[in-house]
Amino acid sequence: MDLWSLEPVALAAELDVLRADVRAFLAEELSAGRIASHCDQWLGGWDHAFSRRLGERGWIGMAFPARYGGSAAGALARFVVTEELLAAGAPVAAHWIADRQSGPGLLKFGTDEQKRAFLPGIARGECFFAAGMSEPDTGSDLASVRTRGSRVEGGWRLSGTKVWASGAHRAHAMITLARTEPRTADRHAGLTQFIVELPDPAVRIRPILLLTGEHHFNEVVLDDVFVPDTRVLGEPGSGWHQVTSELAMERSGPERVLSTFPLLALAMDHLAEHGDRASAARIGAVVGRMWALRQLSLAVAGRLEAGAAPAVEAAVVKDLGTRFESVVIDTVRLLSQVVPDPGSGERLSRMLAESILHSPGFTLRGGTNEILRGVVAKELGVR
Ligand SMILES: Cc1cc2nc3c(=O)[nH]c(=O)nc-3n(C[C@H](O)[C@H](O)[C@H](O)COP(=O)(O)OP(=O)(O)OC[C@H]3O[C@@H](n4cnc5c(N)ncnc54)[C@H](O)[C@@H]3O)c2cc1C
């Protein structure tokens, strides 16, 4: 792989106008107290009403064509909006999976009826999705999923257990990977993706709490749930190809660099008052690193805009970016000398604590860093 094929991207002037609009909207939302800024809000900040307000402005489903309710504004416009939402620490978790991967997956592999059924609602910020890939014994090695799909009259019956399914307790559907043919020497064959609509009496959803006590992800037990043929996503047996395409979308965004940006911004204000020249130099180095990562992340968006599938480049940025997210925490902790406390009356102390408690997931979610390095090594021909 030649990483230098990641061309620098210069954003068009009209995207500066879009950025200014999003920034003004967010400033108004924050100052009116309708939303509050936190780290890692694309994971933890679930706010239906805020998602709807973004939908009204055309800032969800920006990659969908107008006939399915999207604004067809493209990957770079979506990058600009996403970047501003993350930098502000806005609560975007409700629509995140639907906008980032389920919607684009439906667009790519779904039937016209499926697109009409789900995409306009996603773009309005009213229809939310969960991703049902991981299982108790299957995370990195997704081809070993044990959830089974069996053919029945008019559709399929699914049985199995999914874990870590983010937002499944509030989502309207979960795209579920299941084995539909017995395993053969080609372990990637015989997998299928299903759109399981929720809630369903045959689907039990139980919380798995984060370290903070927040209910974000779930164990989802599919107990002989019926899924009609109209809710098979793509071709039966093509699940592996589809799920790798979904993972590429899941891994490629600026959220893999910016989960702790609100903490960095708050710490800079704090250090402007309480810091010294040495702390300014340390923060400067962190900001420089963030800027380089941001340019890489933007270049990945440029490849998406050009219609490419930059899975390997996205793996590099996600590996570097998710490690950087914890560097921000370590640096702020060291320089500010603030004691992290989730119950503190002081905002920096609270945000530092929230970030620390969310940080174990940074390098795991969406594929661990070891797996990402395996993807890169394979591309380089060293594995
Ligand atoms: C916050 C969060 C949200 C999540 N949301 C979702 C979701 O919505 N939907 C969903 O389906 N999943 C979700 N996940 C699950 C996530 O995708 C998995 O945790 C991840 O893929 C790793 O799988 P695992 O936890 O089973 O770990 P394992 O695969 O058991 O890995 C354990 C360790 O072994 C290492 N390892 C495994 N295989 C190899 C290998 N071949 N080479 C080198 N090292 C290896 C891993 O890097 C890791 O360090 C979420 C996870 C988190 C933390």
Characterise this structure.
This protein is an alpha+beta fold and 383 residues long. It folds into 3 domains: 3-127, Butyryl-Coa Dehydrogenase, subunit A, domain 1 (Orthogonal Bundle); 131-238, Butyryl-CoA Dehydrogenase, subunit A, domain 2 (Beta Barrel); 252-380, Butyryl-CoA Dehydrogenase, subunit A, domain 3. The protein contains 13 helices and 8 strands. The chain has helices spanning 13-31, 41-44, 48-56, 75-88, 93-109, 112-123, 239-251, 255-258, 261-274, 277-305, 311-336, 347-358, 369-380; strands at residues 129-132, 148-152, 155-162, 173-179, 191-197, 203-209, 215-228, 232-233. The strands form 2 sheets. It has a 4-stranded mixed beta sheet. A 4-stranded antiparallel beta sheet has the order 2-3-7-6, with no helix packed on it. Strand 6 (203-209) and strand 7 (215-228) form a beta hairpin. Helix 1 packs parallel to helix 4, helix 5 (93-109) runs antiparallel to helix 6 (112-123) and helix 11 crosses helix 13. It is globular, with a radius of gyration of 21 Å. The mean pLDDT is 96. The site of flavin-adenine dinucleotide (FAD) has 21 residues, from strand 1 and helix 13.
What's this entry about, in short?
By secondary structure, this protein is an alpha+beta fold.
Key phrases:
383 residues, alpha+beta, Butyryl-Coa Dehydrogenase, subunit A, domain 1, Butyryl-CoA Dehydrogenase, subunit A, domain 2, Butyryl-CoA Dehydrogenase, subunit A, domain 3, 3 domains, four-stranded mixed beta sheet, four-stranded antiparallel beta sheet, 8 strands, 14% strand, globular, binds flavin-adenine dinucleotide
